[in-house]
Design goal:
Its cofactor is Mn(2+). The chain has about 375 residues and is of the alpha/beta class. The protein has 10 helices and 16 strands. It has 2 domains: about 260 residues, 3-Layer(aba) Sandwich (Aminopeptidase); about 110 residues, Alpha-Beta Plaits (2-Layer Sandwich), CATH 3.30.70.360.
Length: about 375
């Protein structure tokens, strides 16, 4: 491939980086992707899940159906990088590399445009709203997706801390179940000189936080893995004459699978019920941003490994799941498939760090790996 052709996809990635949009607001991102990939001659191009995009290649009902997905949303993080393609949107930036994932899928579209599908159909999904866990659900609920029953689904994520271009995968659980729990503590305000005439939630909240630390199991290699991370708390007002009467604790929960998540949430609810009984507070729980575990199908894992080795890439079989959640897990709950990682560089800042940036050198090798997975079944 000529150098100037490679630069097209690097420049596209950097354009996306400059104009990031958070989950469910990817209107301009959708427009940019649609304009960029349209020349690659998809059989069909459909907008779905409000700000998502689906490309179809091939139209035969004879043969397999493969879906490959990339996520497109950014994060509410202020970027501190000073390079030319830094984010132009205050307080928003691509700190998870979804701009790079989109560029990889765009490069794959260009490869498919050059070699028509002989058997079955291939779908390339540019999915919005991965970061808040709503994107995959929106795609699956969209009537435009209803008629598609993939035989195989694939996705990737760049992985800081691994050598550039190394392929990282494992059969079974690849990323965990993730769920955010919100506990509200309703008491009664009073004068801060007479706290006994009110009901302050502070000590019950503190007790709850400390006990969650005691019940977690932080070894990701264990089936009992349960990571509980406090992410936000609030209580009362900045008025020093008032004893607080209301508070909230927000936690993110991570487990190996849905069954373990059910057990953990039941344990936390029981703990809160006991605290409510002991304190007299009205304590309620709610949940948000649920991510299903990515369960890598064994055959799909073997296909990824085979293609990586065929292309001469270094392949690493991870022994335990990653600890971050990924809503591609909802696809692997419905269809056989797998997600793999590709090394972003040993010295790369971590995901969601304010100085992170996607490694452009991954675009071509990642697209070639996806293309090989397609070529095996569709040509």
């Amino acid at each position: 491939m000529a150098l100037d052709e490679a630069d097209i996809f690097v420049q596209f990635r950097r354009e996306l980086h400059q104009f990031p949009e958070v989950s469910c607001q990817e209107v301009d991102t959708q427009r940019r992707i649609k304009s960029f990939v349209n020349p690659f001659a998809p059989t069909r191009l459909v907008e779905l899940a409000t700000t998502g995009l689906l490309l179809q290649y091939g139209e035969s009902n004879e043969g397999p159906v493969t879906l490959i997905r990339a996520d497109s949303d950014a994060l509410p993080i202020q970027e501190i990088n000073t390079f030319a393609h830094r984010s132009r949107i205050d307080g928003v930036s691509h700190k998870c590399g979804h701009d790079g994932h989109v560029a990889i899928l765009a490069r794959l579209a260009s490869l498919l445009g050059q070699k028509p599908i002989a058997l079955g159909r291939v779908y390339l999904l540019f999915q919005p709203a991965e970061e808040n866990g709503k994107g995959a659900e929106s795609v699956l609920a969209d009537p435009a997706f209803a008629a598609i029953r993939p035989d195989r689904v694939f996705a990737l994520h760049n992985i800081p801390g691994y050598e550039q271009g190394v392929i990282v995968c494992k059969p079974g659980s690849f990323t965990p179940s993730v769920l955010s729990l919100i506990a509200t503590f309703e008491g009664k305000v009073s004068h801060s000189a007479e706290p006994e005439k009110g009901l302050n939630p502070a000590y019950a909240m503190a007790d709850f936080m400390l006990k969650t630390r005691q019940i977690q199991h932080t070894d990701p290699g264990s089936d009992a893995f349960a990571l509980i991370t406090p992410v936000y708390t609030t209580m009362g007002e900045k008025s020093y004459g008032i004893s607080a009467g209301y508070g909230e604790v927000h936690l993110t929960l991570r487990t190996r699978n849905a069954k373990r998540m059910e057990a953990l949430t039941a344990q936390l609810v029981a703990l809160l019920d006991d605290l409510a009984t002991d304190s007299g507070l009205a304590i309620k729980t709610s949940y948000t941003e649920a991510f299903f575990a990515n369960e890598n199908n064994t055959d799909a894992y073997e296909q990824i490994k085979s293609s990586a080795l065929k292309l001469g890439y270094t392949f690493v079989e991870k022994q335990e799941p990653f600890k971050w959640g990924e809503d591609f897990g909802l696809f692997t709950q419905h269809f056989p498939g797998a997600m793999f990682g590709i090394g972003n560089g040993v010295d790369s800042p971590a995901l969601h760090n304010d100085d992170y940036d996607f490694n452009d050198n991954l675009i071509e090798p990642a697209a070639r790996l996806f293309f090989d997975l397609i070529e095996i079944a569709h040509f």
